[in-house]
Design a protein that fits this description.
elongated, heme binding, membrane, metal-binding, binds protoporphyrin IX containing FE, mainly alpha
Length: 191
Amino acid sequence: MPQTQPEKSLPFRDTPMLYGRLTRLLHWTIAALMLWQFLGMGLKLALGRQPIVSFFVGTHQKVGTVLFVLIVLRVVWALMNRRNRPGHGSGVLGLAATLGHLALYAAMVLIPVAALLRAYGSERAFAPFGFQIFAPQTPPIEWMVTFGDMIHGELGWITLALIAGHVLMVCLHEGMWRDGTLRKMAGRGRA
Ligand code: HEM
Ligand code: HEM
């Protein structure tokens, strides 16, 4: 009688077929928190000063700082798994997917780094959780503040467009090519 293969639970590390549990946890947590940041800043632009907007604005630095830590962890974990994760195939589409993911990584790192540099160089103390992380600078470090002002918001909105493209590509993979791309990251909890 043919034996049915017992279901294996999801691996912790990535494999060439699937992203592992830690990569998935980081991907979806970071995605949700980044969308929270965009929602708050979008409401601020659309509605101006409103109680609901103040609530979102009040969480922005805290969530952003937590995001920075999660993103550093994600980069380290991706590097540790780099030889053992799902590939994107050869050809132009494969190259575009690799470059698209690299751009998302670059943006994920640069957006909070720019804001944190600006906070470090500022004449105000940085204490998002109620205790001081960066002391005030007197005088402020101009290049850090200017760099943060130039990069943080602008790159933020460009990245939102990049994320929209990323989600659109996932929809195309699911709707047209049906090649199991979403399953590699979402799955059903089983390998
Ligand atoms: C990945 C994490 C983050 C994302 C996606 C994000 C995104 C954004 C966006 C889209 C804006 C709106 C810019 C505009 O008004 O046009 C903004 C503003 C702002 N963010 Fe963040 N942010 C993040 C992390 C942080 C961190 C860590 C800090 C604090 C150190 C911070 C502090 C600020 C401040 C003070 C503003 C208002 C001033 C400005 O427009 O630059 N953000 N952020
Ligand atoms: C609802 C929104 C999202 C969906 C449905 C989604 C879906 C996916 C899927 C299916 C993959 C696997 C693609 C493959 O390997 O071929 C993936 C990978 C990836 N996604 Fe997303 N994603 C979302 C949001 C985001 C956000 C907000 C970011 C960060 C800015 C992001 C960054 C990445 C990166 C860098 C990869 C490459 C794998 C890795 O190194 O972690 N995604 N995403």
